Give the backbone structure.
Amino acid sequence: MKPRFNDDATMDAIMRGWPATNRVILQLGMLCVGCPIASFHTISDAAHEHGLREELLRSELQAAIDRKDAN
């Protein structure tokens, strides 16, 4: 499964491009929604900042995108 976002995508761009990802971000306890730093943080940055495994965050974001596209 190929991600629809690239490694340089910011959290802000991901949330705006695929609003279904907002739920994942909130469920993981991340504070990206409404955060002014989200326009600078990549997935890698956000995972590190929130103490999450980057692979987990990527897979959860991709799953949210895929679920939304399946509907």
